Amino acid sequence: MKKIFVFPFLFAVLTMIFSCQESARKKTNFQNYLKNTEWIVNEGGLITPDGGKKYELSPRDTALIFNFHGVNFSDAEHFNSYDSWQCGNDCFTGVYGRYYFIEKNRIQMEVDSIRKSEFCDTPTKIFKPSKTMSFDLVKKEGQLQLIRK
Q: Most buried residue, 14, 78, 137, 139, by most Cβ within 10 Å?
């Protein structure tokens, strides 16, 4: 009779341990100054797993701007990097994933998928497990640099 209860109890304990490790990793005490911000990528292009070593970002204001790469940190853990082009170019790329601070000025980004708009005729790339990138964050006069580690 005791053997019947051991397996469910062991399974519950292991599930709890692994669940706690995942959530503890992403919950840090570092201030998240990226939350709810939008940026234009001046140099470096789309933020992708096989992208550049350095990205230079400027805050995205409300001015009408054509032809740029951008990144949006939509909440405390999700981001998307995207293309924005003038009329005539109907193939747009979007990179979707999660981010979290691992140090005061360092983030880890996990790319879950890269999607192309319906006009690109290219399938969505889904990453399981997610592709991981780490960046140092350097603030310079209202701009932000992401430097790949």
A: 137
